Protein 1
Amino acid sequence: MSTTTAQVPTGAPTPATGGGLLGLIRRRPILSFIVLANLMSWLAWIPYILSNHGLGIWDFTYPAGGLGGQLLGVLPGAYLGPIGSALFITAVTEGRAGVKAWAKRLWKWRVNWRWYAGILLGVPLAMIVGGYVFAEGPAYLPTAAVLVALVPGLILQMITTGLAEEPGWRDFLLPRVIRRHGPWKAAVGVGAVWAVWHFPLYLTEWGQGDVPWFRPVTLLAFCIALNVVMTWVFNRTGQSLPMAMLLHVSINNFASTAWEQMFPELTYDRAQFSLFAVSAIGAVIVLLATRGRLGYEPEKIGADDG
């Protein structure tokens, strides 16, 4: 018995992907996310870069000085980039059901209490040890006011930095790259992309003045090392996005509150070296302990989310 097979013209879009830009996004969601996340953020940061907070080409200063620059100049681009791109590409590739599943993962708080304790206590402890090693002066105990400020600062960081970045880098991009390239390669690759996303900000006050060549290189190394640890935490908690957010913002929060007061002579660059060194030690430990798997157990994660 003979059968007839329908022929699809070469180059015609398939029903599953379609043609045009949306078809390209469906066929290449990883590349599309990387390009869109960077492009959207970088475009949104142009006014901040050109303002008096950056190159000074545009004679404009955001209200409230440096804080206003962060909230009004940097944060909108952060929201448009990682989380905005993740939402858009999820909608294009997976539809309404995919968006609902993606949004549901934002609230995966139910993990073993040891993870909360490990992050909330382990991050400051590691940073204090790093500060002792790299600071060129004495250390001081933080004041009661600083300790009280840690909690509201952490909450603010969760809804700004954490919410803006982590749904994109860790929840959208990381699992997809892991499935394609494996855990440790994904951790390195996503960490590098995450670092490069920050690079235009070195043209602003965010970069702490004149930028020596090693400063962005240190950030690149730090982001890669930290992302190895974050990938392990993300996988071991059943890919809990809130735990990734908590780890990320705990570093930012402690650095911007207690760390500076405890180590007043810890310069910006030495602080960055410290963060890299501590993260690198953690990365080596989890890589060796997990033999490069970084806690990745696909059978425990559930259905493939694309």
Note: The chain has one domain: 24-300.
Protein 2
Amino acid sequence: MSKKSQLLSLIKNYKDSQNKVYESILEVNKNSELTPQGKEKRINELVEQFTPKVINIHDNAMNLINGAIEDLQKKWKANSTGRLSDTGYQVGLANTISMIEKGVITDSEDFKNIIEVYKDDYNALATIRTLINSERVDLLTLIPKDNREYIKKSLNDLKNNIDNYISQYQIQNDMNLVFNGMINFIENRLRDDLSIISWEEMSNQ
């Protein structure tokens, strides 16, 4: 199961479980046979019973995202500085750079194929970008942006949301809209490894 599937499973599980507790709390508050003290006691019992599950899902979700960030950073390192000692790769990159400098590669389809080879090497892409004439917008738009910081920020924002909303202090609140938004973000903006699908990629789909 991918990290994305695992995270979705955790969030959906929590959403459904928390909603049931919330509905039970509403029923307690509607019960005219209970005194205010009786209602408070019953609600506290419901919250107390649910709290261990809150902590478990919260911690699992946070660990999953932390692990994804760590894996992505290892991948980025391997695809850039990790390739510096790969002689064959560096020779191929040097030849590619030489051809671009000499203006040999002008066809957008050829250029697209080259970018596909180096798409995960942000250092190589940055070098290639500097070699393209600013008038060749058709080629420049084929070079993926370095969105590593954006990915880390987005995943840290998601962690903050999980920290804020998968919380024992939110058990008594209606959280449907919050978790529907979170689920929508995970389903539509995250890849299986939890990297972010950029808005540019979204618009091209």
Note: Residues 36-79 form the longest helix (44 residues).
